[in-house]
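From the pipeline queue, job 12 of 40. The input is one protein chain; the requested action is below.

Action: predict structure.
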Amino acid sequence: MMVAAASLSAAGAHAQAAEAAVTLRAIPAAPVRGTIVRLVAHFADSTDMPPGLEGEAAGEPLHFEAAGRSYRAIAAVPIEGPDSLSVVLRIVGRPPSDTVVVALPLVTPAYAHEHLTVAPRYTKLDSATQARVDREVSEARAIGPRAHETSRLWKGKFAAPGPGRVTSRFGTGREFNGEVTSRHFGTDFAGKTGAPVRAAGRGVVALVGNFYLAGHAVYLNHGGGLVTGYFHLSRVDVAAGDTVAQGQVIGAIGQSGRATGPHLHWIARYGAITVDPMSLLRLAQ
């Protein structure tokens, strides 16, 4: 097995591993922390195009699909971690196998900071409630790894789940009652109770639950490792196992769970990595 190490330039355009005759390009060229990025592995000559390509990034498998002389996949960039994202490519189905390691330099955005004053019940949980929250978090997070076992169901870009304005963005630091306790790992949309919530992309309903924090929630498995979640609903219109189309109404905005007012909290994960769901709106297949 040959091993080739390559790294991107500061501009983040692309990197070449001569031994494997493959060029890896990221879209966008300079990936941002906490987002989904498109990877394109291009082979200069059709005779170099291998029967298969596998890989991993940030501990999550990559699902490459052939397109001409290229293989394409998506990857998740964790919001915290090293200054670069290490992408491992494994050329399979043609001996000898090559392993190519590419380091993608990352951009760190300036996240906002919110100061919130809330009732103590929103920040201090008793032991029984904390145990419930832990169980519910584990149940929800188990969906991500299972999404890696599902073939990709979506095509093209995703769509926003509702027309409301964004009231709180992904990554925002949150200070509750003068104490920094969390970071906002989703995007909040304003809306009146009962306003429709739509599936951001085609997928299968992986979980419908009534959670302490998220309230009435729906999780969609879009396949290829990708999951989206819709929280604080007042009504759920789908059941686990349903296949939904992009734009299909799956529920309605509410303020169930730990919410101070009606809104939609929208999340996205690639495997176990939570990313900015708004980056899905820029994801072209």
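Job complete. The CA atoms of residues 203 and 244 lie 6 Å apart.
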